[in-house]
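subagent[fold] <- orchestrator: predict structure for attached chain, return tokens only, no commentary.
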Amino acid sequence: MYPFIRMAYHMAKHRNAPQLPADGVHVSQHMCWPVDIDMWRELNNGRTLTLYDLGRIQLARRMGLVAALRRRGWGMTMAGVTARYRRRVVMFDRFEMRSKAIGHDGRFFYLQQSMWKKEEAISSVLYRVAVVGKSGIVPTTEATAEMGFPDWNPQMPDWVEAWNGAENLRVWPPET
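subagent[fold] -> orchestrator:
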């Protein structure tokens, strides 16, 4: 089940947090609960992606994206993700999540999130996110302008460009 109570908790906890600049980092604290673990008693990989929602939504809110979505009647959807897991997270481990927007192209925003335990990275994800309206994907320049960052267009890191290029080569629909 989706962690609605946790989401409400984080929304309340960060409701007065200051707005972030376009390149700001949202930092939040979390714990691995019994409902998060798999049969090996560690944080389930699918649940990890769900927990990243908690940081990503707060990042979007603090950057002004959630307000822009509401004003314009837009939505936000995932268009791709790559995950890297490096350390185990077991029940009752506490960890810090760091969430940051790292750039955009004409269609997608690219967000990097990571989990840290005692200043050691335990996992990291790169998300490709689209803002969608009634007629399809909203150009990122329109979304950034609505967020109050009309000139934000940082140089995308090489590794993000390489991932994006590889994703564009991937066959769709998948071969059967």
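orchestrator: received. Logging for downstream: The helical segments are 4-13, 45-63, 65-72, 140-147, 158-169. The chain is about 30% helix and 30% strand.
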